[in-house]
């Protein structure tokens, strides 16, 4: 079995992208931390042929729900999303416009987009993670992407033209 | 169907690698795992005059010291198989070990005072290694002398094996066991490392 450190190295960045896309910049690191602590506890019992991406995304999915609920209970959350997309090149300041567009999607679509395009899970696995069937997962991802292209990419292109 | 460049553009704002965030998250995971009692093995590397060494500890104490010629990745996989795969690069647990080793290599320490976890050594080999701690700094013994001291004067080859498989070199000083003709003999860290250590202690 691989040392857990290797799992963190190999999959940590992917799970961080998924967490950022699903719960946003403010709560992503809490979701990641909860996910990897939980994964580390269960790791010795993981079957050797397990699909590690799907296993981690399944845990991240549950933790994202917990973190989102906890955030909803917090009084008056401070909005830390930058007003304008960051051009400073600091990777921690990832584009607030993308999160605004993702946040506007129905949860199921946001998850399907993240699990398929960022984690690389097939729709069958996504259905197993978030419920529903394979077709519904495929539709949710397609609808989500369609909306993102309209609400996120188009305005960005318009800004390019306006400059 | 979305094309690959389109997808790249759509998520370009989400970095695929974010080193500062990952460093933060790794440190937090190490703390959380330690607090929750699931950090079964913590490790770090340390740069020394005998190369970069790997140090690993359980909650009982130092469990493994490995030279770079022993292939640190292979050593970590062995620890995963023999102890637990819940292993993290978590330097905090090895602060005191690192400090004492730094002092040793600076010539300011002649014995180690560290809790040791002996679980990777068993039976006669372990008896031999336990005896090695009685060979003082700057002294050497022959393989035959060690065999006699361990109560099995004919087990010279077994003493050699015990030294070669010592899970805790440096701290359990197998480098102080030399050939009867006075030459250094083999060493897990390579013959140069052994000569370096003997020269350090002779100075």
From TrEMBL, chain A:
<feature type="region of interest" description="Disordered">
    <location>
        <begin position="71"/>
        <end position="93"/>
    </location>
</feature>
<feature type="domain" description="RNA polymerase sigma factor 70 region 4 type 2">
    <location>
        <begin position="97"/>
        <end position="141"/>
    </location>
</feature>
<feature type="compositionally biased region" description="Basic and acidic residues">
    <location>
        <begin position="81"/>
        <end position="93"/>
    </location>
</feature>
<dbReference type="InterPro" id="IPR013249">
    <property type="entry name" value="RNA_pol_sigma70_r4_t2"/>
</dbReference>
<dbReference type="Pfam" id="PF04542">
    <property type="entry name" value="Sigma70_r2"/>
</dbReference>
<comment type="similarity">
    <text>Belongs to the sigma-70 factor family. ECF subfamily.</text>
</comment>
<dbReference type="GO" id="GO:0006352">
    <property type="term" value="P:DNA-templated transcription initiation"/>
</dbReference>
<keyword id="KW-0731">Sigma factor</keyword>
<dbReference type="InterPro" id="IPR036388">
    <property type="entry name" value="WH-like_DNA-bd_sf"/>
</dbReference>
<feature type="domain" description="RNA polymerase sigma-70 region 2">
    <location>
        <begin position="8"/>
        <end position="73"/>
    </location>
</feature>
<dbReference type="Pfam" id="PF08281">
    <property type="entry name" value="Sigma70_r4_2"/>
</dbReference>
<keyword id="KW-0804">Transcription</keyword>
<dbReference type="InterPro" id="IPR039425">
    <property type="entry name" value="RNA_pol_sigma-70-like"/>
</dbReference>
<keyword id="KW-0805">Transcription regulation</keyword>
<dbReference type="InterPro" id="IPR013325">
    <property type="entry name" value="RNA_pol_sigma_r2"/>
</dbReference>
<keyword id="KW-0238">DNA-binding</keyword>
<dbReference type="GO" id="GO:0016987">
    <property type="term" value="F:sigma factor activity"/>
</dbReference>
<protein>
    <submittedName>
        <fullName>RNA polymerase sigma factor (Sigma-70 family)</fullName>
    </submittedName>
</protein>
<dbReference type="InterPro" id="IPR014284">
    <property type="entry name" value="RNA_pol_sigma-70_dom"/>
</dbReference>
<dbReference type="GO" id="GO:0003677">
    <property type="term" value="F:DNA binding"/>
</dbReference>
<dbReference type="InterPro" id="IPR013324">
    <property type="entry name" value="RNA_pol_sigma_r3/r4-like"/>
</dbReference>
<dbReference type="InterPro" id="IPR007627">
    <property type="entry name" value="RNA_pol_sigma70_r2"/>
</dbReference>
Automatic annotation (TrEMBL), chain B:
<keyword id="KW-0963">Cytoplasm</keyword>
<dbReference type="GO" id="GO:0032259">
    <property type="term" value="P:methylation"/>
</dbReference>
<comment type="similarity">
    <text>Belongs to the MGMT family.</text>
</comment>
<dbReference type="InterPro" id="IPR023546">
    <property type="entry name" value="MGMT"/>
</dbReference>
<dbReference type="Pfam" id="PF01035">
    <property type="entry name" value="DNA_binding_1"/>
</dbReference>
<dbReference type="InterPro" id="IPR001497">
    <property type="entry name" value="MethylDNA_cys_MeTrfase_AS"/>
</dbReference>
<dbReference type="GO" id="GO:0003908">
    <property type="term" value="F:methylated-DNA-[protein]-cysteine S-methyltransferase activity"/>
</dbReference>
<feature type="domain" description="Methylated-DNA-[protein]-cysteine S-methyltransferase DNA binding">
    <location>
        <begin position="124"/>
        <end position="202"/>
    </location>
</feature>
<dbReference type="InterPro" id="IPR036631">
    <property type="entry name" value="MGMT_N_sf"/>
</dbReference>
<dbReference type="GO" id="GO:0006307">
    <property type="term" value="P:DNA alkylation repair"/>
</dbReference>
<dbReference type="InterPro" id="IPR008332">
    <property type="entry name" value="MethylG_MeTrfase_N"/>
</dbReference>
<comment type="function">
    <text>Involved in the cellular defense against the biological effects of O6-methylguanine (O6-MeG) and O4-methylthymine (O4-MeT) in DNA. Repairs the methylated nucleobase in DNA by stoichiometrically transferring the methyl group to a cysteine residue in the enzyme. This is a suicide reaction: the enzyme is irreversibly inactivated.</text>
</comment>
<feature type="active site" description="Nucleophile; methyl group acceptor">
    <location>
        <position position="174"/>
    </location>
</feature>
<dbReference type="GO" id="GO:0005737">
    <property type="term" value="C:cytoplasm"/>
</dbReference>
<feature type="domain" description="Methylguanine DNA methyltransferase ribonuclease-like">
    <location>
        <begin position="42"/>
        <end position="117"/>
    </location>
</feature>
<keyword id="KW-0808">Transferase</keyword>
<keyword id="KW-0227">DNA damage</keyword>
<protein>
    <recommendedName>
        <fullName>Methylated-DNA--protein-cysteine methyltransferase</fullName>
        <ecNumber>2.1.1.63</ecNumber>
    </recommendedName>
</protein>
<dbReference type="Pfam" id="PF02870">
    <property type="entry name" value="Methyltransf_1N"/>
</dbReference>
<keyword id="KW-0234">DNA repair</keyword>
<dbReference type="InterPro" id="IPR014048">
    <property type="entry name" value="MethylDNA_cys_MeTrfase_DNA-bd"/>
</dbReference>
<keyword id="KW-0489">Methyltransferase</keyword>
């Amino acid at each position: 079995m691989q040392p857990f450190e290797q799992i963190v190295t190999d999959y940590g960045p992917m799970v961080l992208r998924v967490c950022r896309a699903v719960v946003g910049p403010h709560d992503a690191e809490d979701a990641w931390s909860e996910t990897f602590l939980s994964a580390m506890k269960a790791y010795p019992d993981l079957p050797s042929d397990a699909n590690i991406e799907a296993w981690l995304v399944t845990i991240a999915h549950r933790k994202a729900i917990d973190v989102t609920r906890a955030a909803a209970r917090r009084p008056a959350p401070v909005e830390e999303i930058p007003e304008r997309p960051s051009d400073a090149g600091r990777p921690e300041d990832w584009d607030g416009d993308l999160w605004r567009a993702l946040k506007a999607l129905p949860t199921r679509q946001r998850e399907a987009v993240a699990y398929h395009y960022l984690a690389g899970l097939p729709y069958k696995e996504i259905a197993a993670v978030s419920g529903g069937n394979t077709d519904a997962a495929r539709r949710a991802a397609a609808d989500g992407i369609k909306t993102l292209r309209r609400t996120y990419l188009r305005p960005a292109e318009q800004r390019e033209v306006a400059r | 169907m979305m094309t690959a460049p389109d997808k790249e553009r759509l998520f370009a704002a989400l970095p695929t690698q974010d080193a500062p965030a990952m460093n933060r998250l790794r440190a937090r995971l190490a703390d959380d795992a330690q607090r929750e009692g699931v950090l079964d093995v913590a490790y770090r590397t340390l740069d020394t005059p005998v190369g970069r060494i790997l140090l690993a500890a359980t909650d009982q104490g130092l469990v493994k010291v490995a030279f770079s010629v022993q292939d640190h990745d292979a050593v970590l996989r062995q620890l995963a198989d023999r102890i637990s795969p819940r292993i993290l690069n978590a330097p905090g647990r090895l602060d005191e070990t690192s400090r004492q080793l730094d002092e040793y290599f600076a010539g300011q320490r002649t014995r180690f005072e560290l809790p040791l976890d002996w679980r990777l050594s068993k039976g006669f080999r372990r008896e031999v290694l336990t005896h090695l701690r009685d060979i003082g700094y700057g002294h050497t013994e022959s393989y035959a002398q060690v065999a006699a001291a361990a109560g099995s004067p004919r087990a010279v080859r077994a003493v050699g094996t015990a030294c070669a498989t010592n899970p805790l070199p440096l701290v359990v000083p197998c480098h102080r066991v030399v050939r009867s003709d006075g030459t250094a003999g083999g060493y897990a860290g390579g013959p140069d490392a052994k000569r370096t250590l003997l020269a350090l202690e002779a100075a």
